[in-house]
Each structure stands twice: as structure tokens, then as C-alpha cells.
Description:
The chain is mainly α. Helices cover 93% and strands 0% of the residues.
Amino acid sequence: MGIFSRIKTLISSNVNDMISKAEKPEKMLNQLLIDMNEQLIESKKAVALAIADEKKLERETHNQESLSQEWERKAMLAVQSGKDDLAKEALLRKKEYDNAGAEYRKQWEAQKASVEKLKESLRELQNKIEEAMRKKNLLVARAKRAEAQKKIQSTISSVSGNRTAFDAFDRMAQKVDQMEAEADAAQELDDFSSNASLDKRFAELETSDASADMMLLELKEKMKALPDKS
């Protein structure tokens, strides 16, 4: 049938061009499914019309056969009434309906076979669309994952290629190391100065006490050497 040929043409025409230009696979796949479902609806309508034609042929076939039987009954009635001429006319009319009924039956059987093929094609088309919907979800997931990987790789490449930023981090790290070293040195100097001052004070104290002792001892020795005035 032409409807199924049009579906095939729709799905295959310009698909490669659509894929090559598709920036968003999900959008393109959704549009393809929309087109497929629209054609499926048209196909169902076409099959429904074919089924209606089949039913019409079936009814007309049965009608012709029924009329044939009716004229046969009338021929029998004429024979029973002794009216052979009338019986012959009834049989001729029966033959006309027999011929028409045979032709209708032939058309009906051909239409019925065609309808069965159309139904099978329609079921196959519907199954393919359902399969396409399942594949679409997988393809969209794969496309999103690939896009994310591409962005990550692009970011990594961009950062890796920007040596200025890395050099700036290295220089800043060196500067922080220098600042920490200077701070440690300043602290060490402060500690050294405090310790040195404390040692000096104790040393002065010790020196002062020793000098006083010596002077006192010298004074006592000097006093012993003086004449006794008593």
C-alpha cells in the first residue's frame, strides 16, 4: 500500500542530513518519533477504510447469495404450482444473483487477504515505533553522557593548556613559603633576644654580687691591718 511506502520514504529521506546537522540528538529523535506516530495514525485510518471496504463486500456477497436462495425458493414454489415458465424465469434471476454473488465473493476474499496483510504491516510498524521509543531513551542517555565527557575533557584541556594559571599558583606557593619562613625567623629572633636579655640580667646580678663580696673582704682585711686604738 502507498501509505507504508510513504512512511518508509519519510523515515529514510534526508535522515543522514538531519543527523549530520543535529546539535541536540534528543530534539531530533523526538521529532522523528512525532513524525512516525503521525504516519502511524494515517496508516490506521487507511487500514480502517480497507476493513470497511472488506465488510461492505462481505455484506454484499451475503446479500447476493441470499437473493439467489430467495429466487431458488420462488422457482420451487412455481414448480409446485405447475408454472414451469415462471419457474424458469426465477431460475434465470437466481443465476444472475449467483454470478454477482460469485464476483462479490471473489472481491471480498481478495480484499480480506489484503486487509490481513495491512494489519500485519500495521502491527509491525507499531512494534518498530515502540522499539524506536525504547532506543530513543538509550540514545539520549548516551548522548548526554558523551556531551558531559566532552565538556569535562574540554575543561581539562583548557586548564592544562593554560600554563600562566599554574605558574601563578606556583609563584604564590613560593611566596607563601617565604612568608612562613620569614615569620619563623622573626619568631626565632624574638625568642633569642628574650633569652639573651634574661641571661645578661642574671650574669650582671652574679657579677654584682661577686664584686660586693670581694670589696667587703678587702675592707675587712684592711681593717685588720689597722693599729688597735683601744
